[in-house]
Amino acid sequence: MPLHITKIAFRSESPATLRAWLENQPGEARITTRYLPKRVEEMAGGSLYWIHAHMIVGRSPILGFEETGQGRHWVRLEPRLIPVHASPKRAHQGWRYLEDKDAPPDLADGEVDARDAMPPALLHELAKLGLV
User: Fold this and answer.
1) Can you tell me the distance from the alpha carbon of 86 to that of 15, in angstroms, rounded to the nearest whole number?
2) DSSP code per residue over 77-132
3) 3-state DSSP: the chain helix, strand, coil percent, rounded to 5?
4) Pick from 47, 63, 67: which is nearest to 7 by CA?
5) What global pTM score does this model have?
6) pLDDT at 102 over 80
7) How far apart are the C-alpha atoms of 120 and 41, rounded to whole Å?
8) Helix (H, G, I), strand (E, B) or coil at 70
9) Is 16 in a helix, a strand, or coil?
């Protein structure tokens, strides 16, 4: 079972803008990090789960890690956002590991998460209260 990581989708106004950014990357999407995750060997076949407004909203499969040559590392991702059943997740700094058993399941083709129908501000407030 692969190990996953979570990351805040900062500079993303919504999951739709995150999806647009990912899909506009040629070949693969890359994000840069100063520190390589310590458990990188366990992440073969894993995904990066994106957090937006205190909710895990989707995942991008990890293709691998690569040194940039400037003391940093690339996290190489498939350029797509796979929607998942949204689940609450607090904001954090650095990497947080996510075991496969704790990862939210993907949405089936054509399936819509009921939370998508809620206004984002209301969803954010309910998530902060731990109600969704």
Assistant:
1) 11
2) E-S--EEEEEEE----SS-EEEEGGGSPPBPPTT---GGGGS-HHHHHHHHHTT--
3) 20, 35, 40
4) 47
5) 0.85
6) yes
7) 36
8) coil
9) helix
Q: Which of 5, 106, 93, 109 is nearest to 49 (CA)?
A: 5
CA of residue 96 relative to chain centroid, distance: 11
Q: Cα angle vertex 60, ends 121, 28, to 5°?
A: 120
pLDDT for 110 beyond 80: no
pLDDT tens for each residue of 36-85: 889 999 998 999 999 988 889 999 999 999 999 898 999 999 999 999 99
Average pLDDT over residues 91-110: 87
Residue with tokens 């989708």: 9
Q: Are 37 and 127 in contact (CB under 8 A)?
A: no
Contact of 73 with 42, CB cutoff 8 Å: no
Helix (H) or strand (E) holding 6: strand 3-8
Distance CA 19, CA 25 (A): 10
